[in-house]
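Model it.
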Amino acid sequence: MTDQSIFGEVTSWLAANFPNDLKSSWYVGIASDINNRLFDDHRVHRINDSWIYKSAINAAHARSAEAMLIRHGHDGGTGGGDHQSVFVYAFRKAPTTIR
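Modeled.
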């Protein structure tokens, strides 16, 4: 997916499913290994927590989508990941997750 399509799909999904959430209550990032990053590093629970991810066509589109989501008001920081980071993810921050 392109950066624009990822941005659109993530923001639409959040608006439809969590209309009352503050944007800053969602952390966004990029990863090359989505399962390790979300479920191990961030300790997102597969069932009990809320999360979404999309696959970009390349790392440049992933980085761009991440930056767009952060500029839109979501929590996160640019500069992470590596040259193989094509997954863009977002999760609702909870006491059990790690930013």
